[in-house]
TrEMBL record:
<dbReference type="InterPro" id="IPR050770">
    <property type="entry name" value="Intradiol_RC_Dioxygenase"/>
</dbReference>
<keyword id="KW-0223">Dioxygenase</keyword>
<feature type="region of interest" description="Disordered">
    <location>
        <begin position="1"/>
        <end position="73"/>
    </location>
</feature>
<comment type="similarity">
    <text>Belongs to the intradiol ring-cleavage dioxygenase family.</text>
</comment>
<feature type="compositionally biased region" description="Basic and acidic residues">
    <location>
        <begin position="1"/>
        <end position="42"/>
    </location>
</feature>
<dbReference type="Pfam" id="PF00775">
    <property type="entry name" value="Dioxygenase_C"/>
</dbReference>
<dbReference type="InterPro" id="IPR012786">
    <property type="entry name" value="Protocat_dOase_a"/>
</dbReference>
<keyword id="KW-0560">Oxidoreductase</keyword>
<feature type="domain" description="Intradiol ring-cleavage dioxygenases">
    <location>
        <begin position="97"/>
        <end position="191"/>
    </location>
</feature>
<dbReference type="InterPro" id="IPR015889">
    <property type="entry name" value="Intradiol_dOase_core"/>
</dbReference>
<dbReference type="GO" id="GO:0008199">
    <property type="term" value="F:ferric iron binding"/>
</dbReference>
<dbReference type="InterPro" id="IPR000627">
    <property type="entry name" value="Intradiol_dOase_C"/>
</dbReference>
<protein>
    <submittedName>
        <fullName>Protocatechuate 3,4-dioxygenase, alpha subunit</fullName>
    </submittedName>
</protein>
<dbReference type="GO" id="GO:0018578">
    <property type="term" value="F:protocatechuate 3,4-dioxygenase activity"/>
</dbReference>
Amino acid sequence: MTDRTNDAGQADRADQAEHADQVDRTDRADRADHSGEARDRTTGQAERSGSARDRTADQAVQEPDATAEQALTPAQTVGPFYGFALPYAGGPVVVEGGDLRVHGTVFDGAGDPVPDALVEVLQADAEGRLGGGPHGGLFGRCSTAPEGRFAFTTVLPGEAGDGCAPHLAVIVHARGLLLHLHTRLYFPDHARNVSDPVLAKVPDERRHTLIAVPDEDGFRFDIRLQGEHETVFFDV
C-alpha cells in the first residue's frame, strides 16, 4: 500500500513539473512575440521618420530661392476660339457694287503678317447716315489671308454731321489679344481732317497711322499691332 502511494505521489510531481515547463515555454514564446511586435513598431516608426526627413529634404530642394532672379512666364495666346456666330453673310462686302476698295495687312510686333486675324469695319453710307441708307449693310467682316491681308468693298462715307471727317471705324481681333482693338481709317487730303476732334487728339508724329494711302487698288491701310509705327488704338 505504501509503495502504491509513493508511486502516485511521484507521478503527480512529474505531471506538475511537466505542466510548469509548458507554462514556462508559453511565457517565453509570448515574450518573444511581444518583443518582435515592439521591434516592428520601432522599425515602422523609424521608416516613417525617415520618410518625413526625405519629404522635408525634397521640399527644401524644391523651394525656390526668393532672392534669385526668376524667369518670365512664357507668353500665352488666348483661345481656342470656335467659329460659331463668326460667319457673316456679307463678309467683306460692305456695299454691294461699291466703287471703293480698302485693303491692307495686319502685322504683329515683330513685323510678321498675322494670318488668323479678324478685321471689322463700321461706316456711314455715302450720304453720311449711320444706318438705313440705300445701300444697306454698313458693316463688313474679313478674316485675314495666310499673308495677313484683308480687303473690303464699300463706298466713300459721307459726312455724318458729328464734326468728324469721313472715316471707317475699324475693329481688330487677333491671337494674343484679350480684348479687341479699336482704330479708325481716315482718307487723305480730306478737308474735314484738320478739324476732326479725334484726329486732333493724336500726336502729329503718329497721325499718319490712321490715314489710308491711295494706290492702284483703292486705299491701303496697314494695321500694326505693336512695334515701330504701331497703329493708334482707342479706348472705347
